[in-house]
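Summary of Year 1 activities. Much of the first year was spent building the evaluation harness for sequence design. The harness presents a backbone, in tokenized form, and records the residue chosen at every position. We chose the following record to illustrate the format because it has been used consistently in internal testing since the harness was completed.
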């Protein structure tokens, strides 16, 4: 949700009863990050849900130490690590009683994160938007559950409550939902970006490393509009995940999405999306129960 989720979306999600999150690089400066966290912590007080911040722990993120100082000051209940080892955040977050969830795209990365002492894994699977994985979510969660008893989250093409129920039935505790909340009124995404998500489907996505150096799922029209040939573009010489101007410009104009966009019909408020997903989850759970009970 780079350049998509901000305080308004995070707070709306928490008030709707789920976990709202945002990537720290959405803030161009440490001072802005401090202001965002202060606002979110204040506005989610008393909410049914909670909030999280996502920190890029890759070595190219020169701002990580400063971001961690802000985290220590505002104590987000959940810290998600991405694109690098979770080790740099463990002492700070566990020091105030927070949870560390590591984004992982392979079983090898999952093993390393578990060894580092994380509280949970976010298994970013095939179909996820932005930086994506390639494993089936079912295969991923089954393999992880063989040796890990912590929190397991599945990410990848989940845009409705039926997908949430399927993930839970497969062994997950939580799910990542990104693309569906991209197309909400509280999202900071450009209006044209939201409409592109509504208007297009999985056939309009391209998985390419040409933008950041790591495989990501992009909307083909946005690649073409920015001079990339989706079929021949080469990755950059150096990966870039930090919050610098070039990264901001790149993601501002080139738009990511996951395979679940086929079911997104309109831009709606977060609360409406969550209410519908809850109804769909209950319907799916009841359908599964009827099968188990021979109905």
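For this record, the design step produced the sequence shown next.
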């Amino acid at each position: 949700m780079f350049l998509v989720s901000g305080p308004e979306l995070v707070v709306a999600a928490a008030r709707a009863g789920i976990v709202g999150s945002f990537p720290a690089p959405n803030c161009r400066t440490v001072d802005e990050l401090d202001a965002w966290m202060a606002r979110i912590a204040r506005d989610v007080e008393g909410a049914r849900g909670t909030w999280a911040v996502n920190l890029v722990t890759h070595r190219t993120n020169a701002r990580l130490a400063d971001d961690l100082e802000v985290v220590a000051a505002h104590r987000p209940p959940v810290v998600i690590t991405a694109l690098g080892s979770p080790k740099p955040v463990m002492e700070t977050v566990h020091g105030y009683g927070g949870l560390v969830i590591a984004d992982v795209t392979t079983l090898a990365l999952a093993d390393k994160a578990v060894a580092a002492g994380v509280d949970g894994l976010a298994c970013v699977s095939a179909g996820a938007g932005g930086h994506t994985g390639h494993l089936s979510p079912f295969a991923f969660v089954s393999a992880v559950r063989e040796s890990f008893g912590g929190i397991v989250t599945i990410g990848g093409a989940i845009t409705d409550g039926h997908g949430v129920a399927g993930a839970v039935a497969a062994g997950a505790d939580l799910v990542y939902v990104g693309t569906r909340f991209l197309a909400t009124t509280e999202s900071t995404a450009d209006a044209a970006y939201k409409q592109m998500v509504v208007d297009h489907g999985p056939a309009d996505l391209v998985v390419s490393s040409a933008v950041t150096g790591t495989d990501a799922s992009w909307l083909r029209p946005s690649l073409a509009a920015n001079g990339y040939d989706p079929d021949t573009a080469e990755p950059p010489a150096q990966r870039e995940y930090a919050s610098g101007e070039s990264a901001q410009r790149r993601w501002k104009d080139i738009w990511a999405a996951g395979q679940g966009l086929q079911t997104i019909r309109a831009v709606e408020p977060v609360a409406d999306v969550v209410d519908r997903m809850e109804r769909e989850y209950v319907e799916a759970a009841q359908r599964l129960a009827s099968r188990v009970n021979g109905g």
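The chain has one domain: 7-191+258-289. Quantitative recovery figures across the full test set are reported in Table 2.
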